[in-house]
């Protein structure tokens, strides 16, 4: 007996098929439910709205890319590994390119209330892509890496959407150039933060001594 298909996957697939056929703005939850062969009552406990379905699609792509990682490549330079991770993501997205063009044309049809959640999902996705390439994403530098990767990915994504070359050469060239530039900024930032950390350590070491000297002077 075949395994029962996850209704979430069924709804995501239905939504993407409809987006490829017409304007994403015109697609309703009723359309998606009918395409998926499910009722609105089936959708209700799974997704709040269309934006929720899109966020689930993004997470599904994250899982697909992470599941295909080859541990043999973990020793690659981080730049090369990040290139591979992002290009693998574009390969995973390739079957949905018509749908993604429709969704992007309507800016995801995201309302104000969903904008923050959509941004949070996007940043979480970029954080996982960076982690998969061996980059640390904690602290100030890590947060800036995630934000920078989001900007680079958005620019490369737009290039990829219209890239009809067999190997996505123009997209790879843009991604490589952007990552090289960001790598230079990241290196300078790391050195600057290291200097700040050194100064803070020196200051912290001097503070107890200063406080002790002040206490002795008061006692005298």
TrEMBL record:
Protein name as catalogued: TetR family transcriptional regulator
Transferase keyword on record: no
InterPro entries (alphabetical): Homeodomain-like_sf, HTH_TetR
HTH tetR-type domain span: 5-65
Organism: Thalassospira marina
Domain of life of the organism encoding this protein: Bacteria
DNA-binding region: 28-47
Any Pfam family: TetR_N
SUPFAM superfamilies assigned to the protein according to its UniProt record, in alphabetical order: Homeodomain-like
Keywords: DNA-binding
Sequence intervals crossing the membrane: none
């Amino acid at each position: 007996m075949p395994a029962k298909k996850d209704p979430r996957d069924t709804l995501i697939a239905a939504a993407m098929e409809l987006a490829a056929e017409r304007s994403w703005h015109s697609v309703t939850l009723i359309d998606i439910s009918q395409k998926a062969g499910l009722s609105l009552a089936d959708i209700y406990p799974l997704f709040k709205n269309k934006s929720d379905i899109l966020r689930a699609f993004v997470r599904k792509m994250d899982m697909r890319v992470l599941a295909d990682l080859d541990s043999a490549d973990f020793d690659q330079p981080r730049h090369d590994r990040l290139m591979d991770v992002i290009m693998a993501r574009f390969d995973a997205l390739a079957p949905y390119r018509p749908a993604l063009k429709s969704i992007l044309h309507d800016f995801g049809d995201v309302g104000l209330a969903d904008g923050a959640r959509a941004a949070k999902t996007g940043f979480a996705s970029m954080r996982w892509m960076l982690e998969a390439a061996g980059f640390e994403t904690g602290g100030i530098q890590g947060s800036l890496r995630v934000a920078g990767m989001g900007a680079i990915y958005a620019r490369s994504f737009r290039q990829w959407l219209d890239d009809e070359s067999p190997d996505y050469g123009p997209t790879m060239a843009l991604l490589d150039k952007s990552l090289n530039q960001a790598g230079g900024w990241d290196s300078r930032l790391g050195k600057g933060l290291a200097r700040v950390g050194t100064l803070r350590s020196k200051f912290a070491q001097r503070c107890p001594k200063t406080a002790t000297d002040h206490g002795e002077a008061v006692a005298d």
